[in-house]
């Protein structure tokens, strides 16, 4: 790369905290890989990162798929260079009473909101450890420590 800017990966980059984080890295002039499923949101986030002064790489991926996350990391390093910072933000939730939530909904929330962080961390460490450098950021939630109505799946996944 040779520009001196960092290579940053942000999961859940299509909206909310993930998108805001990606744009903040863009303001620093970083190359930001935007990982998420929503292609429209990713396109918008990419435009914002570029407008802020960064370089954006859109990588559509489901963070609940370990192999897909690792393939995304490979693509990032191939196109942008070695990953310096990995930020796990991606989450999903289901607003429902516990006795009404379906098992597959609970499973999906856990796979994205917990295992997505695990898979992202594994992919980042696999690349950072041999180089002896890198930063991994896990974006948490106060709901990991305090349950609230209609959010049992999310609270449980964040607590994990």
From TrEMBL:
GO terms for cellular component: membrane. The keyword tRNA processing does not apply. Keywords: Oxidoreductase. GO terms for molecular function: oxidoreductase activity. It comes from the Bacteria. InterPro entries: NAD(P)-bd_dom_sf (IPR036291), SDR_fam (IPR002347). Belongs to the short-chain dehydrogenases/reductases (SDR) family. This is Short-chain dehydrogenase. It comes from Sinomonas humi.
């Amino acid at each position: 790369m040779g520009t001196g800017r960092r290579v940053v990966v942000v999961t859940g980059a299509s909206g909310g905290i993930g998108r805001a984080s990606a744009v903040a890295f863009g303001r620093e002039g970083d190359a930001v890989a935007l990982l998420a499923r929503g292609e429209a949101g990713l396109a918008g986030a990419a435009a914002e990162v570029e407008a802020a002064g960064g370089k954006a790489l859109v990588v559509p991926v489901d963070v609940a798929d370990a192999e897909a996350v690792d393939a995304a990391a490979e693509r990032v390093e191939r196109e942008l260079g070695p990953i310096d910072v990995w930020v796990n933000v991606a989450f999903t939730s289901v607003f429902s009473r516990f006795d009404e939530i379906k098992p597959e909904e609970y499973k999906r929330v856990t796979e994205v909101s917990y295992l997505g962080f695990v898979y992202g961390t594994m992919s980042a460490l696999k690349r950072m450890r041999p180089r002896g450098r890198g930063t991994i950021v896990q974006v948490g939630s106060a709901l990991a420590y305090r349950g609230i109505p209609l959010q049992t799946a999310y609270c449980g996944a964040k607590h994990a």
